[in-house]
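Customer escalation, tier 2.

The customer says the design service returned an amino acid string that "doesn't look like it belongs to this structure." They asked us to rerun it and document both sides in this ticket. The original structure tokens are below, unchanged.
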């Protein structure tokens, strides 16, 4: 029960912590000053929403997200959100691939070589079907989360930052709604593909509470660190590098590698949601569908990482508010429909 619950917990975290989140760009886009309460609300909303998605997925033993989506938004809107989820996964995976190019530039690697490396790694991963993704998450994510938390705590202590000095200033609490909504849609796609692999409801509790608490703690400390360097963030494509600039080059190398793996796990989750949705139409091997999908994505990465995050993430955060509302009110409307 525990090992399976932790496996799903890492899948949730791996889907959420991508280029936008791990780089700090997504957190700064939504939070920033006066956002402590917003992050607390995010933890509650996120855990509850994941619980509903996994419960529906488990009950239907689903292998792709459409049955889960139909239960959440209703038959009339299923087609609309099916298209939206597909384009969301598509565009955010493009963002992850662009993030790989941006991360590679730290080592003076060409932007395009960073993108090619990501594409090749994704193809190799899916040669082992979905099991390759689950195994990778259990190895990489503890290293990523530990490294990110270590750097943020080190920065907090070095700069002698107070973690709870501004709790009387919480005017940005409404940011919790679009931020949670942004991160919920890909989880419907990914968690909808594993319903037939979940063994018990206890696994769901472990996955939801664990992922919410871990993401909440890291988000709060990360956001608090970014507030201290607010004037410098505009100068960096990846805000995390503004935090790392005063530390030894070896730390920069390690964190850039971890950032790349964060990008990789989210790109892999996005690809998983896309290919499990369309594989029934093409009847081809999973890896071949991945190759064709990536070939259509790579030209779009020319738009740039920070530009894509700045425009696409807020738009999806607003568009997904209806889905978030349906998830949070699921116990009420589910009883009404019975």
């Amino acid at each position: 029960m525990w090992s399976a619950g932790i496996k799903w917990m890492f899948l949730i975290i791996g889907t959420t912590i991508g280029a936008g989140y791990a780089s700090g760009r997504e957190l700064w886009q939504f939070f920033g000053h006066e956002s402590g309460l917003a992050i607390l609300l995010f933890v509650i909303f996120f855990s509850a929403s994941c619980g509903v998605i996994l419960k529906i997925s488990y009950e239907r033993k689903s292998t792709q997200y459409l049955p889960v989506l139909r239960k959440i938004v209703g038959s009339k809107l299923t087609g609309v959100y099916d298209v939206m989820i597909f384009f969301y996964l598509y565009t955010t995976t493009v963002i992850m691939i662009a993030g790989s190019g941006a991360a590679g530039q730290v080592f003076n690697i060409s932007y395009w070589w960073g993108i090619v490396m990501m594409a090749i790694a994704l193809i190799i991963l899916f040669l082992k079907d979905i099991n390759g993704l689950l195994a990778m998450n259990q190895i990489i994510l503890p290293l990523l989360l530990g490294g990110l938390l270590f750097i943020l705590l080190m920065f907090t202590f070095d700069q002698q930052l107070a973690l709870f000095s501004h709790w009387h200033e919480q005017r940005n609490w409404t940011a919790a709604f679009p931020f949670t909504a942004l991160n919920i849609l890909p989880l419907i796609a990914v968690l909808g593909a594993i319903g037939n692999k979940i063994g018990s409801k206890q696994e769901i509790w472990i996955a939801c509470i664990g992922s919410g608490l871990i993401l909440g703690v890291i988000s709060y400390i990360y956001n608090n660190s970014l507030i201290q360097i607010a004037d410098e963030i505009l100068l960096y494509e990846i805000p995390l590098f503004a935090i790392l600039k005063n530390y030894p080059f070896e730390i920069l190398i390690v964190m850039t590698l971890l950032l790349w793996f964060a990008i990789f796990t989210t790109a892999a989750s996005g690809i998983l949601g896309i290919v499990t949705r369309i594989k029934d139409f093409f009847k081809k091997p999973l890896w071949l569908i991945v190759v064709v999908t990536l070939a259509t994505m790579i030209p779009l990465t020319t738009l740039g990482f920070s530009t894509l995050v700045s425009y696409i993430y807020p738009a999806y955060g607003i568009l997904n508010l209806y889905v978030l509302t349906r998830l949070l009110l699921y116990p009420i409307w589910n009883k009404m429909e019975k």
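Tier 2 assessment: The sequence is consistent with the input. DSSP finds 16 helices and no strands in the chain. Residues 123 and 288 are 8 Å apart (CA to CA). Sent an explanation to the customer and offered a walkthrough call.
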